[in-house]
UniProtKB/TrEMBL annotation:
Protein known as: CAPN5
GO cellular component: cytoplasm
Organism the protein comes from: Acanthosepion pharaonis
GO biological process: proteolysis
Molecular function terms from GO: calcium-dependent cysteine-type endopeptidase activity
Matching Gene3D superfamilies: 2.60.120.380, C2 domain, Cysteine proteinases
Organism superkingdom: Eukaryota
Record EC number: 3.4.22.-
SUPFAM superfamilies in the record: C2 domain (Calcium/lipid-binding domain, CaLB), Calpain large subunit, middle domain (domain III), Cysteine proteinases
Transmembrane segments: none
Residue ranges constituting the C2 domain according to the UniProt record: 510-627
Amino acid sequence: MPLNLPISIPKNFFGTPIKPYKGQDYAKLKQECISKGELFKDPLFPPENSSLFFTPSKISEIGNIVWKRPKEICDAPKLFVEGANSGDVTQGSLGNCWFVAAMSCLANYKEVWNRVIPDHETQDWNDEKPEEYAGIFHFRFWRYGEWVDIVVDDLLPVRGGQLIFIHSKERNEFWSALLEKAYAKLFGTYEVLDGGDLCEALEDFTGGVSDAMSLPDLKVADALEERTSLFERMKKEMDRKSLMAASIPAKSSEEMEASLDSGLVVGHAYGITCVKNVHLEGSGLFGLFGREKMQMVRLRNPWGQCEWKGAFSDGAPEWEKIDKNDREKVGLTFEDDGEFWMTFEDFCKNFVNIAICRVVNTSIFSIRKTWSEGCADGLWAKPARCGGCINNRETFLNNPQFAFDVTEDEDEVMIQLMQKTSRTKTGDDNETIGCTLIKVEENRRYRMHDLRYQEVITSTVFRNSRSIFLRTSMKKGRYVIIPCTFKSEIEGEFLLRVYTSSENSFRVLEHDQPVRTMWQCCAKEPILVTRVKVIKATGLEKQENTGADPYVIISCEGEKVCSPVRKDTTDPDFNSSAIFFRRNPTNSPLKIQIWNSNMLRDQYMGKHVFTSIDECDGSIHQVDLFGRGKEGDIQRPGKLIVEITTKRELASI
């Protein structure tokens, strides 16, 4: 009799539906196979040479291959044998150490692989219910903002009775081989996985954002302060369940996967499985190194062999001075499985690149959200949305523009730009991309048209990689991100993600100027646009022992913009700006007030009203301050310095 298996729409981290790859629904397909008494055979990724390689010579090189199901390879196959761990994953005949290293990282965190390998207990072979076995499995990968559920059969390529690609050290464990098959299906063939970017695999496993760093550029090999800073960051990321890996890039094809005298392999990716301060006092190491603790890192070679041969390697003289109990006391034990320890100083001197993938703004590891996320799909398209990088001054602003707010006095901000490309037979079809970060008016809601009026904060590096990452500290205010290709007139799709500690009101700037809504059908159209920048004030009234905590309010036609508070000064540098689209400039002048921020009640310090509506461009004004109400004609202490631009062309600033 057919089994009535429950069929439900799967959900991702945030409760939204997961997309079945090419419409293949795992539960329905499994139910159909069980009903028919058949084992699943995937028509979209058949057990043929075309699923293995697209290069004919590769097929002849690898020899006679047969496709077998796990029960034909071993007795009592299992998806997991005693759970997943980094030692399960061993690289096969493909040069996909980048993917294997990411899998090693994945295996260390149950919360993550439970998402990538869903309901693994019901997917696994069940000797008590053999009728539920249908030769079908499914895995999930994050792809450009959504989770994709990929179905595979369990026919695996075998030569001489052995799996030819990724395999586990336990002969009857198959999660790693089946996961690799699902990833290969996503791109069409196994061969496409030969060579790749570690960051991509980490992101596809987690939906996180990856930061790739060059250790030589950070100068951590010789500079103690920089090295300590990186260690503390990596330790914090490890505590946050971030996935990390390291590599030594090859300078030529001859160097690929060549072993160095140190035992490390060039052109090869290593998973970082632990970052730890080892306390030496009382362990037998204190007298040897003369310090209370040592910064150490543990790595794993996806090959399952070829380990580090330097200090603290297996059998190194440092360990001869320490008995087994002391090793266990500091948490350092060793097996011959490709996993090894290094001092962090040796790590910085021997490795070149590291990748850190942080899972952000999800409830995987914490009930409380740590980050506020802004996320948008975008398009570089002709004729007016693919202007190239900032070097193309005439066309740069003809790119998509996105605004967000930093609401804390200072905040850590993470930005990731990811182009939507795919791995193909000809390699990655990546364009050279990057983004520029610009400080804009506190109330900007429409696109920028002239870069002269804005402050360019920074630009990322431009690379032909799938994603670009920027992590920086930013002051309170409104900012615009311009994602772009390096050259103009290059079309493509992208995903932009922004993370801040507090709500950031992330949004796309679509319109060039105000657009009349149905609620404003009788309202007048704007006839002027005015941009005002309050540069600074001098000689303000001292209203408390430390002077004052001044801020400005810029108002026009019912709209008010407040600057951040400047602490303990009567000569504040404000550098705050606002932009107003004015419908009635004659009767509604521009007004700037200065207030002193207090805990109970703010104190008035002065104002100035600007009545001119003449066109001007960057006109600097130093003006007096006056009282308010009945004291409106009485001059107050201090001067105000502002820059004003007024134009009749609304789409000009």
